[in-house]
Q: What sequence folds into this?
């Protein structure tokens, strides 16, 4: 064991000396490995970033919410079938809450009615178009996980009275009230004055997903006074997230009963959940993974061929040295280990350079496009270094094996 450690240490020393003596050749040889490691690292960074971005965007709405809607969140082929469905009535929320109150052990917690529209908001000379406007009840503050940066959410009394009050998102506040607090001030929605009573904390958005940053919420009673609520009605139901499947089944059965559907009739509503959005992003992640793996595989293959070639050249250049070492008693294992370590060392250095380059590119993207989340994790570093070492082993083994089998007499006569 001690001899093996000594041989390994000596091989590392010789490999380091060879890399220092042939810096340019080593750098060019490692170029393929560098490109491959950059590709695999950026691929992993992008995929992890997409997951983190979706989680961040959806976190404010809570991952324990089921959405009872007329339309599914996924693409549909039979559009007319969904178009002809009856609207989702807001009274269902009260009936669901009544079910929860009278059903011990229910997986459902709280139902809140909502309605939504895209609208224009004006404050003086400032104008914001296509702002997501939400009408809901005071209970919405109990199911959302978004905090308020300042102010408060509207109360039951304000909701029942149909008061013209609203809570605005962080970006809306920043655009309409630059360098001042919007609390107590007035904005115009549908040509009506609304008093701002709260501002949501900055949440961030990703890939156009919902975000409190560009939203305005008002009491549902007020919303119904200024908007026609038919197609946009929805019920959001907070459930026990440890019993999500059970809760979805319970809510489906309850909704079928509330809608008066017979056993032979299909559902005329959809129960959506955040997992649907994540599933829709899978093709994007798969595309990034396929492109990254193709570039990685191609670059590592070219890099491995280059390292194998340069290791064969190194064996040829040092044939007499191999003969001398064998004549002095060096074992085949020692020669094999020496050239194998040299190949692995070049790949390892290439892997480190690739990781450093990928980290730099990740930082650059973070500066240029701060809204796109990128996650450069420790696991990617481990994967990158492991891939580079394995590339060195596979590419260097054949020439190292050939060097170890050289006859010392023939090697000493080599010209």
A:
């Amino acid at each position: 064991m001690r001899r093996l450690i000594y041989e390994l240490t000596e091989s590392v020393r010789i490999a380091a000396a060879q890399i220092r003596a042939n810096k340019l050749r080593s750098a060019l040889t490692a170029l393929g490995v560098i490109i491959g490691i950059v590709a695999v690292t950026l691929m992993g960074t992008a995929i992890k970033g997409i997951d983190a971005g979706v989680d961040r965007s959806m976190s404010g709405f809570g991952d324990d919410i089921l959405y009872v809607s007329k339309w599914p969140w996924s693409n549909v082929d039979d559009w007319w079938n969904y178009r002809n469905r009856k609207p989702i009535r807001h009274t269902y929320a009260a009936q669901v809450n009544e079910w929860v109150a009278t059903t011990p052990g229910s997986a459902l917690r709280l139902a809140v009615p909502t309605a939504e529209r895209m609208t224009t908001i004006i404050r003086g000379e400032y104008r914001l178009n296509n702002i997501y406007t939400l009408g809901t009840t005071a209970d919405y503050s109990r199911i959302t996980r978004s905090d308020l940066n300042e102010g408060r959410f509207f109360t039951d009394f304000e909701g029942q009275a149909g008061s013209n009050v609203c809570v605005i998102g962080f970006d809306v506040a920043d655009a309409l009230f630059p360098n001042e607090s919007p609390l107590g001030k007035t904005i115009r929605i549908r040509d009506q004055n609304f008093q701002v009573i709260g501002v949501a904390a900055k949440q961030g958005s990703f890939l156009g997903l919902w975000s409190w940053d560009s939203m305005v919420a008002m009491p549902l009673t007020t919303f119904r006074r200024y908007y026609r609520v038919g197609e946009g009605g929805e019920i959001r139901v907070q459930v026990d997230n440890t019993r999500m499947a059970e809760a979805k089944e319970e809510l489906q059965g309850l909704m079928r009963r509330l809608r008066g559907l017979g056993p032979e009739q299909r559902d005329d509503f959809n129960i959506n959940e955040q997992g649907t959005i994540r599933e829709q992003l899978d093709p994007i992640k798969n595309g990034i993974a396929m492109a990254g793996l193709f570039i990685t595989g191609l670059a590592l293959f070219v890099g491995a061929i280059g390292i194998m070639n340069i290791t064969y050249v190194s064996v040829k250049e040092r044939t007499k040295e191999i003969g001398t070492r064998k004549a002095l008693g060096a074992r085949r294992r020692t020669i094999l280990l020496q050239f194998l370590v040299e190949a692995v060392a070049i790949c390892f250095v290439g892997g480190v350079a690739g990781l450093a380059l990928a980290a730099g590119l990740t930082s650059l993207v973070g500066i240029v496009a701060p809204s796109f989340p990128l996650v450069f994790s420790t696991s990617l570093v481990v994967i990158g270094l492991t891939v580079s070492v394995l590339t060195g082993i596979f590419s260097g083994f054949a020439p190292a094996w050939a060097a170890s089998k050289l006859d010392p007499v023939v090697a000493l006569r080599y010209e």
In short: The radius of gyration is 32 Å.
